[in-house]
Amino acid sequence: MIEFRDRFRMGLMFGTLAVPFVAVIVRLADLQLVQSAAAGARSIPLKTSSIPAQRGRILDRHGEELACDRPVYEVRAEIQAVPGLPGADPFARVDLEVLRAFKNRVVTDVLWALGKDSDRFQDPAARDAVRETLEKRVIRALERAVDSERAAIDFLIDRTLDDADAIAALRSLDRRSKSRVRDEAVTWRMFLHENVRFERVYAEPDHAAGVIGLVRDEPLVVDGQKVADRRPVSGLERLASLLPQQDGEHSRLVDALSRSMWIDRRREPQPGAEVRTTLDRSLQRRADVEVARAAEDVAAHYGSVPEWAGLVLVDVKTGGILAAASYTAAKDGSRDRNGAFAPTQRLFPPGSVVKPLHVAMVLERGLLDWNETIDCRPGYLAGSDFVRPVPARRTIRDSHQNGPLPVSQVLIQSSNIGAIRIGLRLGPDGLDEYLQRYGFGAPSGAELPGELVGTVPSQIASQSVNEQYVFAGPSVLFGYQIQATILQVARAYLTFLSGQPRDLRLVEPEAGDQGVTSERFLSSATLDTVKSALVGVLEDEHGTARRVGAWIKKLRVDGYVDLEIAGKTGTSQYSSSKATRWDGEVVNGDVRTASFVGFTPVREPRFLAVCVVQKVGASSFYGGTYAAPAASRLLFEALVRASKESTARLDRSGSTRVAGGAEPGGSAILSRR
Amino acid sequence: MSHALAAPDPGSRTRVRELDWLMLAVTVLCCLGLVMAVSVQSVQDGGDPLQAMKSQGAKLVAGVVFFVICAAVRMEWLERAAPWLFGVATAMVFAAALFGPEWNGARRWIPIAGRSFQPVDFARLALIIVTALRIAQAGERLGELRGGLVRVLLPALLLSAGLFMQPDNGNALLSIVVCTLMAFAGGVALKWLVSAACIAVPAVVVIITQHDYVRMRIERFMNEDPPYQVRQSLIAIENGGVFGQGVGDGWRKLGYVPEPHNDFVFAIVGEELGFVGAASVVLLYLLLGFVGWRLVARIQDPFRRHVVFGCSIALCIQAAANLMVTTGLAPAKGIDLPFVSAGGTNLVASLGAVGLIGNAARSGLTDDS
């Protein structure tokens, strides 16, 4: 053992040294047990950035995309220490030659990078256009930099770049440029904005614009709160279900030098729901072409375009809208694709197209013998001829003088007098039921945002005798005092052809949604009887759509032997002192609406088309002339396509049956010999 | 050399139970250093966990090699070589001060083969050995001024002069303090020590306060306004709470706490292991000091006793200084935490000091003692 003195001194040293350690432990206790608990956990410096959620996709009935979001990047370039700029060297003069050479190199390099996407510049004109745009941007950025004496320029390369190859090439441009221009002290820095945004793209930007609608790059604000980055302005795009459910969040742990160290938390964005529509992309395209063609026919005859036109094709079996096209004239006579969507936002008196609807009801109730003759002389009804002894006077004329007509000819020749004489047999309650059964004045069921519901007379049964038998009653029987949309007329005929109230559909229902089955109010026998008359509308020598009938007969000669289309024309007119023409001029004149509702095949209708064209100040403007051809051509096109699909289906299933005759479901399919 | 590194005489060595505890403490601290290196360096720029592990592992291997050498070398040879070792080490300190590259306003490093090392850590080890030798040789003359105090402290003053030139005030002070404590423990008269302190302390204060940054650090410490690095360190420790954020899960190392792998590694320990872990580390250093005290109380040979005392006290003082700075109890000063900081030179030198303690204890203790 060493001496006590040495032990004491060394012990004293070690003991003294223990003091700081004890102090440190006390300090730790203070920091970690007391202060930490008192202050609570300090928040972690997370930088949270939002990940925008996509809008839902819009698909056609085959699952093809009609509208979808695609991610796009905004790509900017920042160039520092540009030679010749004052900021780069305070004593240097701006050297225009250097700047010009520099600009050329920047544009060349960027074009090279963008050209990595081989599809981008297949067209030399497109490449020249991009070059020109880039040159302008670089020059503008250079000018700004010179004016503000900055040594860096910042210019936009592309706002909607979505090509991975091009983005990668632009990233590599940074390194590439440095090595190439090191001697000139030019440094490139490419900024690829990480905040992806979405751009709405449409498969049929022209042909389906009306029904699909569009979104604008401006925030959607509801009750003062921003709901989405983009605002839907029309069409299906306004469906609430398409709205992004919830933006995602991307949290990064960021250190003191603003370096993102790693992804700490990520909440995936919740996109909007996918909307599967009943639309058929190819038929929609065809409908759009046909409605434009109808407008051209009007323009060719009258020298000016119609105010608007609309064409709708419906699948009778499902009630789904296969195509809905709209034509609106701009003030310069061209087509305005941003105008009101005619099938849902234009109201018109449907006119004679409603006649088969109530005739069928009268027939179904046994109030009419199909073989009886209706007195349509002398071509007009005057005063109390409707029902005696009503004192009120009103004259209703047919377009031409008729004699006594069989019921079928009342429809074929579209006699107003005959239709009224037949329809009034329903009585006031029956008239109300007629309007209600066919859904006039009610939404069509398509649930297309912005759809108008139109107007009908208030309950006829509760009105005066004059109204019941002279004014409102007779009017609704030949399509007046009713304001309807094209979709409502289509729905009325869908109901008629089904014998029971039906709704249209534009969006496929959720799985398991069977819809509501209504009570049938028209028997098959009644329908077959009325439909036979509607065939005559096209094929009878007195039929109002006999021109279309001639075209159908020609197609039969060409081989489409099964082709049969039935339908009803309608022509309505009303005088207005403030009728607005296509060129914006307000005139005092007649507003004429030509319409046609057709369906095919007749025996078991599969397709239903409604075409409506409206023109201000046109005489002799009939549905059989201007609306029926477009609707019939579309029906024929739909039939041909269905036939091809059926053939392909049979071929795939290995059947030896030749297309034609009846489908497995029983529907007749067009065949050609 | 072959004589010096010859196998020690088994008869002169004995098993010392305290050394087991010492090795336990050092091993745990070294492992902690390895874990913290991976935790901290893997998230630095270009960091990679495997690379961090390899880098720190290589330093540890070098340290273990040096530890074995120090533990195996014969103490008699060390007695003879001590002046030479000290001379070489001090010359390197002066060489660094005069010819070394200047980094952050100081010349403390000697570049060798693309790497650099600080000779001060080895110089301090040599200083302890030579000081222990001088105390042992002074014998009864320790009570005198010239034969005692001056003789014992002369090497420390010489080394400190070189360190002040670099400048490395912290290590200079540390060297003086260690040697002064060794002198006091060795038996230098208290009156001379107090007298010397009356002269040296003001002189040192004057010298070190010539530097603005030193003055500023002291002023901020006195005003309870810790500098940025200490403030960040305190926040990190505070974040640890009782059980810490978890190994690798601390985030103050991400650019907030400066030198999180070196001077302020204890802040990261505190954040990731919490009070439980940090206090355990402190207790391990206390254990190291306690073992040192237990050993010196039993070693009869003055040279070996003072080597153990010097090494133990140096490690403890260095640890205490680091811990106090990190916890805001002392003005900011860059000092490595022995065994835990990633500095390779310090790790090797610290393990060498442990080797010396073991060597001196095993050769200086007999079963009787």
Choose one word for the global shape of chain B.
globular
In helices, the fraction of residues of chain B equals 55-70%
CATH fold descriptor of the largest domain in chain A: Beta-lactamase
Question: Mind describing the biggest β-sheet of chain B?
Answer: 2 strands, antiparallel
Description:
The complex is a heterodimer of chains A (673) and B (369). Chain A is α+β, with helices and mostly antiparallel strands and 673 residues long. Chain A folds into 3 domains: 42-64 and 203-277, Penicillin-binding protein 2a (Domain 2); 73-195, no CATH class; 281-671, DD-peptidase/beta-lactamase superfamily (Beta-lactamase, 3-Layer(aba) Sandwich). In chain A, 36% of the residues lie in helices and 21% in strands. In chain A, strands 2, 3, 4, 5, 6 and 13 form a 6-stranded mixed beta sheet that branches. Chain A has a 5-stranded antiparallel beta sheet with strand order 15-14-22-21-20, sandwiched between helices. In chain A, strand 8 and strand 9 (225-228) form a beta hairpin. Residues 178-185 and 655-668 of chain A have low confidence and may be disordered. By secondary structure, chain B is mainly alpha-helical. Chain B has one domain (18-364). Chain B is built from 12 helices and 2 strands; from the N terminus they run H-H-H-E-E-H-H-H-H-H-H-H-H-H. Chain B has helices spanning 17-41, 49-72, 75-99, 119-138, 145-165, 169-186, 190-208, 212-222, 228-240, 265-296, 302-326, 344-364; strands at 110-112, 115-117. In chain B, helix 1 (17-41) packs antiparallel against helix 2, helix 1 runs antiparallel to helix 10 (265-296) and helix 4 (119-138) packs parallel to helix 12. The radius of gyration of chain B is 20 Å and the shape is globular. Mean pLDDT of chain B is 83; it is low at 1-11. The interface between A and B is large, with 38 and 51 residues.
SSE arrangement:
The complex is a heterodimer of chains A (673) and B (369).
Chain A: H1 4-39, E1 46-51, E2 58-59, E3 65-80, H2 96-114, H3 124-147, E4 152-161, H4 164-180, E5 187-192, E6 197-202, H5 209-212, E7 215-216, E8 220-222, E9 225-228, E10 231-232, E11 248-254, E12 260-267, E13 275-276, H6 281-302, E14 308-315, E15 321-328, H7 342-345, H8 355-364, E16 373-375, E17 380-381, E18 396-397, E19 404-406, H9 407-412, H10 416-423, H11 427-437, H12 465-469, H13 472-477, H14 486-498, H15 524-539, H16 546-557, E20 566-580, E21 586-600, E22 607-616, H17 623-626, H18 628-652, E23 661-662, E24 668-669
Parallel strand pairs in A: 2-13
Antiparallel strand pairs in A: 1-11, 2-3, 3-4, 3-5, 3-6, 7-10, 8-9, 11-12, 14-15, 14-22, 16-19, 17-18, 20-21, 21-22, 23-24
Helix pairs in contact in A: 2-3, 2-4, 6-18, 8-10, 8-15, 15-16
Chain B: H1 17-41, H2 49-72, H3 75-99, E1 110-112, E2 115-117, H4 119-138, H5 145-165, H6 169-186, H7 190-208, H8 212-222, H9 228-240, H10 265-296, H11 302-326, H12 344-364
Antiparallel strand pairs in B: 1-2
Helix pairs in contact in B: 1-2, 1-10, 1-12, 2-12, 3-4, 3-5, 4-5, 4-6, 4-11, 4-12, 5-6, 6-7, 6-11, 9-10, 10-11, 11-12
